[in-house]
Amino acid sequence: MITVALADDQPLVRSGLRMILEGEADVEIVGEAADGAEAVALVRAAHPDVLLLDVQMPGVDGLEALAQLAATTITTRVLMLTTFDLDEYVYRAMRAGASGFLLKDMPGEDIAAAVRQAARGGDALLAPALTRRLVDRFARDRPRATAPALDRLTARELEVLRLVARGLSNAEIAADLSIGETTVKTHVARVLMKLGLRDRVQAVVAAYEAGLTSGTTG
């Protein structure tokens, strides 16, 4: 059973998410929060597998709540919720350690699938149609952060990282490189380990900030 907590200041949104997820046989809602402070307290108390966290809330917002949770040893995976498909707050959340982001108007089956994927701890969640636009808009035009040590990666690992940054799934990367999907998963895992990254979201951000997607390595 996947345990899920919901945090959004709009009761209607929380109700909608609850209705969607309670219809799934393998999902259990363990609590709701109306702001970031309540969300942090809820996660500390219930230790859900996944937290759906609204970006913009009064008082303690989603970003501050995420920062507070990231400073603990809590292993809850956080999926940020947003109404806007090009929202700088979401990019900041990705850098801060969110496992991904979802649009509130996504189909219910996609939200349920995202929760399962996050709970498995596999590929981190990026709404596929938004990945390139979101990260490209807010990463390409920013001053470069300290580039990750890309020289630690093999040529094939660099190639895989570049495709990850383009928003491709493991299956799509496997097809593009004519290798097995299991091999892709191994390469992604090695990239994360070598660069000290937690998940695929952070790999996307790191690739953009290092200039990998523009043909340079920073």
From TrEMBL:
Keywords assigned by UniProt, alphabetized: DNA-binding, Phosphoprotein, Transcription, Transcription regulation
SUPFAM superfamilies, per database record: C-terminal effector domain of the bipartite response regulators (SSF46894), CheY-like (SSF52172)
Modified residues (4-aspartylphosphate): D54
Top-level taxon of origin: Bacteria
Domain HTH luxR-type: 146-211
Pfam families: GerE (PF00196), Response_reg (PF00072)
GO molecular function: DNA binding
Signal peptide: none
Domain named Response regulatory: residues: 3-119
Protein name per its UniProtKB record: DNA-binding NarL/FixJ family response regulator
Protein species of origin: Nocardioides marmoribigeumensis
